[in-house]
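Thread: quick sanity check before group meeting

JM: Hey all, I'm pulling together slides for Thursday and realized we never actually wrote out the predicted structure for the chain we discussed last week. Dropping the sequence here so it's in one place. If anyone has concerns about the input, flag it before I start.
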Amino acid sequence: MSSTVNSTEGEERFVPLQFDSLEPAEMSRRAKEFYETIDSRRSVRFFEDKPIPEGVLEDCIRAASSAPSGAHRQPWTFAVVRDPAIKKEIRLAAEAEERETYENRLTDEWREALRPLGTDWHKPFLEIAPALIVVFRKAWGVDENGERQTNYYTQESVGIASGFLLAALHSAGLGTLTHTPSPMGFLSRVLERPENEKAYLLIPVGYPAADCEVPDLQRKPLDEVSVWY
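JM (edit): ok, ran it. Output follows.
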């Protein structure tokens, strides 16, 4: 018997699921190990300019692109920026938006929420980090005939893929920051992306600086973030 499920013309082909069942003890070990690894992830704003080994970012992006997506449209583009001149242009544009936000857009409540993080409009990490990954959401696609194609659940799909990416980068031993200067339209302009790609997230990536410090924050316990029925 063929290892694939028969299909008719024009339909997707199905293949058997490759899935390894684990013993309960191994399941528990892996779950705890992953939790302990990912729980150590923190947002990093101080980087070394040490280059990232070749192939690491590529494999992390491959992992991110394995995320589920609406109708399997895979509505994302991961733009990797390592060119110093482009990083500088991004920093200047981001700082212009951030300065306007901190000086004129923040409400008192928002300003108070940011206070424990010690952030301001200065973003030197955008030049110091050896790589920036800009995640773009494809609001719509283009089919093989050049026609506009509907993408589904793009916000959810790109959010899941971004989570995969952050986990992969942390697992690879790299520091990251989820940076969302608002508005982010300047990223499409600087990187000359097509009209259907909307900037979703800007992730500086690299080795944390030796003297890097992070806010002493505590995560909510399990009973505050879950409900069991």
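AS: nice. The chain has one domain: 44-208. Residues 44-208 form a domain with the NADH Oxidase fold (CATH 3.40.109.10).
JM: adding both to the slides.
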